[in-house]
Amino acid sequence: MSGSGADKAESGRSVRNARLSRATPWLWVGVALLLTALASAAVGAVPIPPVTAARILLARLPALHIRADWPASYATILYEIRLPNLALTALTGMALAGSGAAFQGLFRNPLADPYVIGVASGAGLGAVLAMSAHWPAGVLGLAAVPVAGFIGAVLTVGLVYSLSRVGGSTPVTTLILAGVAVSSFATAGTSLILLLSTSELHRAVTWMVGGFSLGGWEPVLAASPYLLLGLGVLVLLGRPINVLQFGDEQARQLGLDVERLKLVIVVAASLVAATAVSFSGIIAFVGLIVPHLTRLLWGPDYRRLLPLATLLGGSFLLAADTAARAVLSPRELPVGVVTSIVGAPFFLWLLHRARRRLRGW
Amino acid sequence: MSHRVALSWRLQSRRWQAAAALLSLLLLVACATAAPTAVATPAAVRIVSLAPSNTEILFAVGAGAQMVGRDELSDYPGEAQQVASIGSTYGALNAEAILALQPDLILGADITSPEQVQALEDLGLTVFVLANPVDFEGLFANLELVGELTGHSAEAQTAVSGLRTRVQAVTQATQGAARPTVYYEVDGTDPTAPWTTGSGTFQSLLIQLAGGQNMAEEMQGWGQISLEELVARDPAVIVFGLGPWVPTTVEGLAARTGWGDIAAVRQGAVYGIDANWVDRPGPRLVDALEAMAGFIHPELFE
Amino acid sequence: MAELELQSASLGYADHPVLRQVSLRVDPGEVLAVVGPNGVGKSTLIKAASGALPPLSGEVRINGLDLRSLRPAARARLVSVVPQATDLPGSFLALDVVLMGRTPYLGWLENEGALDREAAQLAMQRTELAELAERPVGELSGGEQQRVLIARALAQQAPVMLLDEPTAHLDLRHQDQVLRLVRELARERSLAVLLALHDLNLVARFADRVALLSNGGVRALGKPEQVLTPDGLAEVYGMHIHVMPHPVFGTPLVLSGE
Questions:
Q1: Using CB atoms within 10 A as the burial measure, which of A38, B160, B183, B267 is most buried?
Q2: Global pTM?
Q3: In sequence order, which ranges of C170-212 are alpha helices (DSSP H)?
Q4: First to last CA, chain A
Q5: pLDDT tens-digit map of C1-53
Q6: Hey, are the CB atoms on A205 and B90 less than 8 Å from each other?
Q7: For chain A, what percentages of helix, strand and coil (3-state, to nearest 5) are there?
Q8: Prediction ipTM score
Q9: Cβ pair B123:A145 closer than 8 A
Q10: Interchain contact C169–A (C-beta under 8 A)
Q11: A214 at interface of B, judged by CB pairs closer than 8 A
């Protein structure tokens, strides 16, 4: 990593750019979130003029005395369909990007995503089990499937973690390997169950591709506490995660309780990812790409990376969801398809640009 | 597994037949208790169908003109394609599009997931789910039910008697006739391990009523069998479902490696049947029955 | 001020001890260099002295405190480690890296305060890195990167400092610069410095005492001219060694005799 070939002028420029970028990211991310939220609320099978939409929302304030001169279905659409969808999508995007960033920090590996230690495969297995065995439905009703998915995810991560403990420490490479192995097993189990109870195939595919489509505010209210708690913890751990980037040994020598930190990250990030998957299915790409994008734009400092990636993830998924609903209306594309199609080329372009400026990681 | 199977109605195995019947009964009771008397409930005049089979049933009882929306796969009869599409029923339903049509009845089927039903009901919409029938009487009951819901009871009765007569014609003709072994192919993507139907499915029932013997009858539900097994059992008749996404043809199947010695192939008793007739729990099941009977007992039917 | 002491420590991994019954002491203000062939256990010794690798038997103490009895943060306030400057995450700014030396004084949720920033500033001034503070470490030369890691250890303000092959990837000029800095710091701040080094000539010039490791133990311990003898070295390295006085410094100059 010799700097003898570095161009002094170039590095001077990069320093100035770094200073500039330091001030504006929150602005960019905030604006992005606002714009994508507006777009998401504006798009749907029924064209509601923006002014009318604004008036419908403001009518909630009795002081403004706005008379209802719109069809009743508009209010239903806005309050019961679009706004809850907007909220859940934003939360899911935030959850995936936030946990993805945390896992990339934990594993010091740019290929880590929220599913690498088994969250998705475990949730899938749990959900499919609940669909095939009808007993939990009697007690929990439709909530049986997301609950079972969540439990499946948590148990799988727990298994992966305990398999990776080697004499008091959990080396990250072991975590990844155990995650891959257990995930394969869980996925195979899921396929087997589906083969034996083909009646649930349609429902299972529906879930995997985009979640429960339950609609309404209930999923949002059910998921929010876990998501906000988990993300809140992760976002505050930026500084210790920075130290972790120098390796377990150096981090330990700098006085960090590395094993406890890893455990906290695994628990919080898995909780967040498991909740997101249970309600929204397995949406690929967001948790991998958004942290990268954030890193390329605003640097590797996790104190900023974690909160910025989280917010950017919300915007990203909102944009993808809006496109998924608008492009082939009335058909709704699975949002995961859009995230891949849109995200991949964009990321390649950013990487190409950044390779000149940044050296290393 | 073929796309077609995923789309098709999944037939409950024997264990769930009772549950399905109970569910139908419960649904009927629920509907009855929701409205004080069946007679007092007004007929639905703005209907959205969430399954191609429902669309076919609606048209069969004369309620086609009362449809305001359909799923994108509803393509029969031809007039159905004029009805507005609400998109795919895979994944999230386009609730807005459905709501915008202001339906007074949404007709779901077995492929409609409970979450989708709940999502619609949460919006204040009325949803009725037709359970998959396990036999023709079940199918006829569904038609009569839809007739009542849409104010076409008389037409439904007429349609049902016509269908019933046709079914009886087949069952009576094949009574006592020898039962050739029939292999029904659900998916032949892997010709060394094709998917077929065991017992407990409507496809199996069709074979039986048409005077044949399901080759894979000891199996429950759908599954794969090995080519070896197939050759050993040497079915006399092979039937497979035809469709736009199924590449199988009569010549293609006959030409498959290792299939040449099967009795059905040697005697040219390989037939394709419109998959939609067989897979959709609607009135065209009767067409399927008649076609099957023609394949299995050409000597009895023209 | 504190001294580092290993008492009859056996070090290594559960089924395979690398060093047996090692006893040595480093006093405040002195630089003790550990030398020996590759694989003899120099890095293992450094790891054990930092508390990262608990001894299989025996003790590692700083100021009389057994390292095992301390929590990671408390340990890091007593001993700092300067690793080799390889595979550093290159996008962090030099200042950020030096600030990480303050980790033992901060809780997970705390951010650096004025005191911490001051400690980092002083460390960077002493290591002549003040101008490079805002540069990403990936853009610095090998010597500069090593100095960043030394500054980080300085910011830790620990009385014991360990260095593991700090000159491994450095050119001639930077090797001298780094080791001279280390010796000066030891004197200035009364640090007890334990240094693993493979270059015997650098050891001769910059170390106060030398421990020669061989065959799982300390073969010799003493001043450089006492330990770096042709016979002693020949036995450990398995080849003819020639030792003569350095023409400028007078310290032992070790040359291959084959």
A1: B183
A2: 0.82
A3: 172-189, 200-206
A4: 12
A5: 899 999 989 998 877 889 998 999 999 999 999 999 988 999 999 999 999 88
A6: yes
A7: 80, 0, 20
A8: 0.90
A9: no
A10: no
A11: yes
